[in-house]
Amino acid sequence: MRVQSIRDFAAAVRGRRKDLRMSQAELAARAGVSRKWVYEFEAGKPNAELGLILRVMDALDLQLELNLDEHARTAVPGHTM
Question: Model-level pTM?
Fold first, then answer.
């Protein structure tokens, strides 16, 4: 899935949680965060801490992969491959 915003990220996490038939409280307990934090993150909280997001992803067996956009390589002055 291509994620371009925190809302996209939150939607992916929420979708995975629901696919696993896991409640927000269950996810919170597995990830070591509060249920309120899960609720706020899934609602698109713009300043969610990356470390906590990674813990939630781990609890859902999700991975984060970063790729350089092919167009970005030529857009950065002085960048060579």
Answer: 0.77
